[in-house]
Design a protein that fits this description.
This protein is α+β, with helices and mostly antiparallel strands. It contains six helices and eight strands, in the order E-E-H-H-E-H-E-H-E-H-E-H-E-E. The chain has a domain of 148 residues: NADH Oxidase.
Length: 257
């Protein structure tokens, strides 16, 4: 089923930037737990999944700009805007493959190329642009860039596109950085591989019983004031919810001084 996503995030409204951008359409894919949320935003977050294999269609820059309206509000200490994006299409992806080969020292036969960047028609490079700031350390600026990447991934997913964030050991190798024009104070954080989703994948996702991580495993509290750690019992369950077990996340032992 395909529906329209409105500016408010509600299903059923056309989302148009200034009345000129095309409506953004998404394929509704249910996932475990997504139907339990009353708000469209939480439901969208719950059903997001990475899609490794995508088709030959991809959003154009106009649609990307429409989606970016929901990304530019990412949490950003002191409004430094420490991130930027680059789109790679067509032969730019071949150039990326050549740069990755150069970084890895890979030699190919004449006419052959690295096919990995060709797994999607559109790659969106995510770059963290760090600046020296008395209150905002570099790691926090990188976190903002990562947040922008995740928000864009979520927005693309809700618009009906398959997305996979990919990176590797050569992401910030010199040939790859030079290709992207990455400055010395910047960091390339990988690429969103974007394309259309095969209907069969959407159907499998709608009926998938793959369990999601138990949120209690991620939530804790400060250690006791006496310096010992607390025991946080995390609840876990099987995919069908039939078995519940406790597992200890911490042991009672003195905190290192």
């Amino acid at each position: 089923m395909t529906e329209l996503v409105g500016d408010s995030g509600a299903v059923g409204e056309p989302y148009s930037a200034g009345g000129s951008a095309p409506s953004v359409r998404r394929t509704v894919v249910n996932s475990p737990g997504a139907s339990a949320y009353r708000t469209p935003v939480l439901a969208a977050m719950a059903r997001r999944r990475s899609v490794a294999k995508v088709g030959s269609k991809a959003p154009d820059d106009r649609e990307l700009l429409t989606l970016l309206r929901s990304v530019v509000t990412v949490a950003d200490h002191d409004a430094l805007r420490p991130w930027r994006l680059l789109t790679l299409r067509g032969d730019d992806r071949v150039r990326l493959g050549t740069a990755l080969d150069a970084a890895a020292g890979t030699q190919r036969a004449p006419g052959e190329s690295n096919l990995k960047p060709l797994r999607a028609e559109l790659l969106v490079a995510i770059i963290a642009s760090q600046v020296d700031h008395p209150k905002v350390p570099h790691w926090e600026q990188v976190a903002t860039a990562a947040g922008a990447g995740h928000l864009l991934s979520l927005a693309l997913s809700e618009a009906g596109w398959g997305v996979m964030w990919r990176s590797g050991v050569h992401t910030n190798a010199q040939p790859v950085r030079e290709l992207h024009g990455v400055a010395d104070d910047e960091r390339l954080m990988g690429w969103l591989y974007v394309g259309d989703v095969d209907p069969s994948f959407a159907r499998r996702s709608a009926t998938s019983s793959r369990p999601v991580p138990d949120p209690t495993a991620f939530l804790g509290s400060l250690p006791p004031a006496d310096g010992t750690t607390s025991r946080m019992a995390a609840r876990s369950q099987t995919a069908d919810g039939s078995q519940m077990t406790d597992r200890s996340r911490m042991t009672d032992s003195p905190m290192p001084r």
